[in-house]
Amino acid sequence: MLNESNKQKLEELRKRYPTSQALVLPVLWMVQEQEGYISEDAMKYVAAILNVSYGHILGVVTFYTMFHSKPLGSHHIEVCTNVSCMLRGCDKIVEHLENKLGITFGETSKDKKWTLSEAECLGSCGTAPMLAIADEYYESLTPQKVDEILERLRP
Ligand code: FES
After folding, report:
1. Do residues 102 and 52 both lie within one domain?
2. Mean pLDDT of the 72-98 span
């Protein structure tokens, strides 16, 4: 599952971490960076190479929103719905995105171009409402700005 480069990284990390369990997060990152998401088979693989239970790995992957257990679309849109964004109208942004893309939170469009996710505070409260796509922030959103973003990203 891990490519040769990541296997070497893992062996280096093993020297620096006190237990195999402490390697769960970095190894899951490696898998996700390599494969784009963490499949059930990948979770079993990580459990086996780190000698921890599959249940533990599943718990970690499903707890942290930065890990994805399903393939994502080409553009992963993460919309903050936390307090500042909620008070500044993120509901209208979410509704607009859902109508434009035909998907809701947790879904990927049939053409695999878009995935829509709900995000906790992304630290940009002063420019709420906001969303992130591939670590780029789009702030002080309006439905019109959302249309411009989607148009720019459309292949
Ligand atoms: S509440 Fe949305 S960025 Fe902080």
Report:
1. no
2. 98
